[in-house]
Amino acid sequence: xxxxxxxxxxxxxxxxxxxxxxxxxxxxxxxxxxxxxxxxxxxxxxxxxxxxxxxxxxxxxxxxxxxxxxxxxxxxxxxx
Length: 80
Description:
Layout: H1 3-20, H2 25-32, H3 36-48, H4 61-68
Helix pairs in contact: 1-3, 1-4
């Protein structure tokens, strides 16, 4: 699985674990193998974007990632 696709799925999972399951940042970090700092940044951005759970059905992983990383090239590479 390309790294960008994995990152996109982690955004959704981090949001779910925090907003639905109510886990702490450290619990989310252990569950997703993502650094505490990265989770803090992601959740801070989610607050700024006023994201609520559950996410809208029409919000796919690509659009979700684009909200968090505007201007980034989020296309999957077939190089590796």
